[in-house]
C-alpha cells in the first residue's frame, strides 16, 4: 500500500510540474529551435533490449517505456506505463495496472500481453551477459484482461520494482520482436517519449517526439539527434563549433577542467556537475594461469595506487574507490583500504613469495577503446606503469572497440580487463548481485554462495536503508577473493551551450540521460 501511495503522490507532483513548466514557443521558427543535438561516446551495442545490459540503455530510456521508472529526483520507482505495487506482505507478488490507451509507434496496442511477451523473451533468448541476469527471482508472468500484469517471484525480492524500472525491461510489440530470437532488421519500435526516425550505427540516432506517448515525462523539445563519437576531442570540438548542443558521456578530465576554468573562448559553454554513482574496476579471470592465482590478485590489490591514478589521469573529476558499492549508496565501505592500506611493494612481494611466486608475473590487461571516453587508454597506461615499477609484474595492455571487447571477455579470453558500471538502480544490491553467480554480467562465472545468501536476506527487507550489514558482509568476501578490484568513482558532467536549459535535470538516478529535459532557453 505504501508503494501505491508513493506512486499516487508522484503522479500528483508530476501533474503540478506539468502545469508549472509549460511555455510557449517564441516565434514561427519554434519547431526548428526545439531540435536538440547531443553528443556521447556511449553507442548502443544492440537495438534490442533483450540483449543489452550496458550503455545501450541511454537510447532505450528515451524511446521505450517501462512499467515503472525513475524520474529525476526520485529514489524509488514511480509510475510510467503502469501503476504497480506488491500485492502481498512477503514481497513475492508484484501487480501492475497499465494506463489506458497505450500504443506503440507502429500503432499496435500496448497491453498486458505485450508486457508479458517483453519480459518472457528476455529469459527465453537468454543472451550471454544480457539482462536475463536481472530476473533471477522471477518465477512467471501472468496477465488478467488487457491491463493487469502479475509477476510471481520465486523468493522475496524487494528490489524487483527497481529491476522493472531499468531500460532492460523496455516493453516491445510482439508483432515486431520474436519471442525466441533477437530482432535483426536494425529498427526499433517502442512507446516512449520519442520514436526512432532513423539510426546509423556508429554515427547518429534521430529521435522525433511521439505524439501518442502517455507516461511521466514532460517533453521539452520536438526532436533530438544523438551523435556517437569515438574520440572525446572530436566531440568537444563539435560542441565548441555549435555542431552539437550538449555532451552527455565521454568528457575527459582535461576537458572538464578546461570548462571549469571558464576561459574566454568557452564563454558560450556551461558545465553541469552532479553526484555520480558510476564506478570503474578491474575483473580477474579465474581461468587464467596468472590472474587465477589468489596471491597474484592480492599482490595487485596491494600495489595499485588509486590516488595517483585519479590525480594523474582524472584530475579531480573522480575519487578513489575502495569497495564495489560507491559513496552515496547504503552499504558503502572502505574495505579494500582497511585490508591493504596504502600501496606497499614489500607487502606485495611477500604475498607472492609466500605463494611460491618468485619470478615477475606476466599478465595482459584489456580495455575498451570507445566506451568510457578517451581517458581509458591513459588509465591503463598508468596501471601498467605502477605494476611494472615494482619489478613484480610484466604487463601488456590492449584495447578493442566495445563490440569486439564484449565478445572477448564474454568468451573468457582476457586475463584481466577493465569495466565500468553505471547503476541499473540506486541500491547496493545493484553493485553486488550483477557480478556474482554463474550468469553474471561479466561473462566470468563467480560462484559465491555466501554472497548469494546475503543478497537473499537483504531482499526480504522493504526498507532498503536497513540492509547495511548484509552488504558489508558481502564486500568482505569480495575483498577476500579479489575477483573484482574497484578503482575509482566518478562525477557526472553535462557540457552544453549556454542557450540550452535542463542539463541539471537530464540525468536520472540510473545516470541515464533523459533527453526530453533539454530545451532552448530562448523558446521555452
Description:
The chain is α+β, with helices and mostly antiparallel strands. It folds into two domains: 2-12 and 43-192, Dipeptide-binding Protein, Domain 1 (Dipeptide-binding Protein, domain 1), CATH 3.90.76.10; 279-490, Dipeptide-binding Protein, domain 3. The chain is built from 15 helices and 21 strands. The protein has helices at residues 2-20, 30-33, 57-63, 112-125, 160-164, 232-240, 253-260, 294-303, 306-314, 335-340, 345-354, 376-388, 402-410, 449-458, 468-481; strands at 35-40, 68-69, 78-79, 82-86, 93-98, 138-144, 148-153, 194-200, 204-209, 223-228, 246-247, 269-274, 279-284, 318-320, 361-368, 393-400, 416-421, 484-490, 492-497, 500-501, 519-520. A seven-stranded mixed β-sheet has the order 8-9-10-1-11-19-12, with helices on both faces. A six-stranded mixed β-sheet has the order 14-18-13-17-15-16. It has a four-stranded antiparallel β-sheet with strand order 4-5-7-6. Strand 4 and strand 5 (93-98) form a beta hairpin. Helix 8 packs antiparallel against helix 11, helix 9 (306-314) packs antiparallel against helix 12 and helix 14 runs antiparallel to helix 15. It is globular. Residues 1-32 have low confidence and may be disordered.
Amino acid at each position: 500500500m505504501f508503494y501505491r501511495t508513493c506512486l499516487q503522490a508522484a503522479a500528483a507532483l508530476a501533474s503540478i510540474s506539468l502545469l508549472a513548466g509549460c511555455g510557449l514557443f517564441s516565434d514561427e521558427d519554434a519547431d526548428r529551435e526545439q531540435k536538440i543535438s547531443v553528443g556521447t561516446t556511449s553507442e548502443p551495442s544492440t537495438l534490442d533490449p533483450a540483449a543489452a545490459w550496458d550503455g545501450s540503455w541511454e537510447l532505450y530510456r528515451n524511446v521505450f517505456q517501462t512499467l515503472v521508472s525513475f524520474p529525476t529526483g526520485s529514489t524509488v520507482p514511480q509510475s510510467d506505463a503502469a501503476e504497480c505495487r506488491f500485492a502481498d506482505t512477503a514481497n513475492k507478488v508484484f501487480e501492475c495496472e497499465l494506463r489506458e490507451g497505450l500504443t506503440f509507434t507502429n500503432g499496435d496496442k500496448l497491453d498486458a500481453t505485450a508486457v508479458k511477451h517483453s519480459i518472457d523473451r528476455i529469459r527465453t533468448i537468454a543472451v550471454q551477459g544480457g539482462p536475463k541476469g536481472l530476473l533471477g527471482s522471477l518465477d512467471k508472468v501472468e496477465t488478467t484482461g488487457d491491463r493487469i500484469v502479475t509477476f510471481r517471484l520465486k523468493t522475496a525480492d524487494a528490489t524487483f520494482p527497481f529491476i522493472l524500472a531499468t531500460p532492460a525491461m523496455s516493453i516491445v510489440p510482439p508483432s515486431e520482436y520474436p519471442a525466441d530470437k533477437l530482432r535483426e532488421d536494425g529498427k526499433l519500435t517502442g512507446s516512449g517519449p520519442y520514436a526512432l526516425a532513423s539510426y546509423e550505427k556508429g554515427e547518429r540516432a534521430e529521435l522525433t517526439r511521439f505524439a501518442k506517448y502517455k507516461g511521466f515525462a514532460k517533453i521539452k523539445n520536438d526532436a533530438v539527434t544523438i551523435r556517437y563519437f569515438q574520440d572525446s576531442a572530436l566531440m568537444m570540438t563539435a560542441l565548441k563549433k555549435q555542431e552539437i548542443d550538449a555532451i552527455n558521456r565521454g568528457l575527459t578530465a582535461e576537458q572538464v577542467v578546461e570548462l571549469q576554468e571558464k576561459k574566454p573562448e568557452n564563454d558560450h559553454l556551461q558545465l553541469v556537475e552532479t553526484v555520480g554513482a558510476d564506478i570503474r574496476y578491474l575483473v580477474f579471470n579465474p581461468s587464467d594461469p596468472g590472474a587465477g592465482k589468489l596471491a597474484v590478485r592480492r599482490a595487485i590489490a596491494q600495489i595499485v595506487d588509486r590516488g595517483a591514478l585519479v590525480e594523474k589521469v582524472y584530475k579531480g573529476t573522480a575519487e578513489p574507490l575502495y569497495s564495489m558499492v560507491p559513496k552515496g549508496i547504503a552499504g558503502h565501505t572502505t574495505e579494500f583500504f582497511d585490508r591493504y592500506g596504502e600501496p606497499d611493494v614489500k607487502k606485495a612481494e611477500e604475498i607472492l613469495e609466500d605463494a611460491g611466486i618468485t619470478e615477475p608475473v606476466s599478465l595482459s590487461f584489456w580495455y575498451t577503446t570507445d566506451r568510457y571516453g578517451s581517458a581509458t587508454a591513459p588509465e591503463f597506461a598508468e596501471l601498467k606503469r605502477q605494476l611494472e615499477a615494482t619489478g613484480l609484474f610484466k604487463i601488456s595492455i590492449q584495447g578493442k572497440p566495445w563490440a569486439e571487447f564484449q565478445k572477448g571477455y564474454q568468451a573468457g579470453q582476457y586475463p584481466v580487463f577493465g569495466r565500468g558500471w553505471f547503476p541499473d538502480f540506486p541500491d547496493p544490491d545493484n553493485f553486488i548481485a550483477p557480478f556474482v553467480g554463474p550468469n553474471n554480467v561479466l561473462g566470468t562465472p563467480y560462484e559465491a554462495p555466501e554472497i548469494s545468501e546475503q543478497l537473499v536476506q537483504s531482499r526480504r527487507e522493504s526498507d532498503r536503508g536497513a540492509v547495511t550489514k548484509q552488504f558489508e558482509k558481502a564486500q568482505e568476501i569480495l575483498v577476500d577473493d579479489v575477483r573484482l578490484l574497484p578503482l575509482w568513482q566518478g562525477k557526472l558532467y553535462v557540457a552544453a551551450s549556454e542557450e540550452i536549459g535542463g542539463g541539471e535535470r537530464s540525468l536520472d538516478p540510473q545516470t541515464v540521460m533523459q533527453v526530453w529535459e533539454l530545451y532552448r532557453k530562448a523558446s521555452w
